[in-house]
Design brief:
There is one protein chain. The protein is an all-alpha fold. The chain has a domain of 77 residues. The chain contains seven helices and no strands. The longest helix is centred in the middle third of the chain and has 23 residues. It is elongated. 19% of the residues are buried. About 10% of the residues have low confidence. The structure holds zinc ion. Zinc ion binds next to loops.
């Protein structure tokens, strides 16, 4: 056992696994300051629930066209809600939608988990005194 392995273990207890960040448990500073982190978490849970429904239907052998339509609609609704629900309090833009248009693939989620200010107008949502 190398001396480094113990410190890695201790570090592992205080740090979140990256998959938890992807689930929206760790959200960006800006989202918590604007009190919108729950919207991203709900959106992620919504989309993951849709994927889980899809997997359950496949495993149960119940994947039919109506099922597929329902699950797809459920996922699209969750995705759309996430895109449209999160707004900047300064510029009132739909920030996630704005980022989605500019970050190809899943880059928008990584960016939304990191932003410390509004990606559109740069407002940091810091309390003004
Ligand atoms: Zn803004």
């Amino acid at each position: 056992m190398s001396p480094g392995s113990k410190s890695r273990l201790l570090k592992g207890q205080t740090c979140y696994h990256p998959s938890l960040a992807a689930l929206g448990i760790l959200v960006s500073e800006w989202l918590s300051r604007t009190h919108q982190e729950w919207k991203l978490k709900l959106g992620m849970a919504w989309i993951l629930a849709g994927i889980a429904l899809f997997v359950v239907a496949i495993v149960a052998g119940a994947l039919s066209v109506p099922w597929l339509v329902v699950v797809l609609a459920f996922c699209v609704a969750g995705f759309g809600w996430t895109a449209l629900a999160i707004r900047c309090s300064a510029c009132r833009r739909r920030v996630v939608y704005w980022v989605m248009l500019r970050e190809p693939g899943h880059g928008w989620l990584a960016r939304m988990l990191k932003v410390d200010r509004c990606p559109v107008c740069g407002d940091s949502a810091a309390p003004r005194s």
